[in-house]
């Protein structure tokens, strides 16, 4: 039995490994911010974080499974390290795991008091993957942005009620995600074109897409300051956060305009994930 459990943990990690820094890590940071805001004690905080990590692991696991089940041929071109391509999981095994996650995820959401957000996320990724939302860049970006709402609202609500300032954070992160998520499609143009997908770089053209993304990263500078940093007042640490966010935003502008190979675009997407994680980590002191 322990060997079977560790095998399942390993397989789930193989399915999730490419997305942990866009889901489990940043969402858990937002949970920690809510814990600090609510003033939970050490034991309650530890159990809350453990529940949150399990929740967000299942959050991305269901999405990863349906994405990879419906996109094996794409992954042979774009992501040959994924488990259905390498043989770490069979198609039948992936479908059984997806069925289990469809039950376990909302059940855990119910236990944690966030079942409405769990059901919203399941609905969104069904629209995204199974019903073709991923084939048009506007629909894809919108569904992912709404997914951010379901992710961050659950992260806060499993600890304490969502207040107006928190909603501003969630809305801002969702809007900015809609604008910048196209970075992840820059690296996959060849495979997406083969599969007749209209992703942002294919629909707009590579150069125009990169300019739009660069403009969005410039927009991050005043938006994150006004919505997230300025309400906390002026302190040395808010100035440091502003400087770090500005540095990441300008780094992304430079990367998306000057570095354009698939490998470089993959690393740029990683920087986007660092930005997302860092912003939510700053909520620990800003909210």
Automatic annotation (TrEMBL):
Ranges annotated as spanning the membrane: 20-38, 45-66, 103-130, 166-183, 212-230, 236-257
GO molecular function: transferase activity, transferring alkyl or aryl (other than methyl) groups
Annotated compartments: Membrane
Cellular component GO terms, alphabetical: membrane
Pfam families, per the entry: UbiA (PF01040)
Main location as per UniProt: membrane
Name of the featured protein: Prenyltransferase
Organism: Streptomyces nanshensis
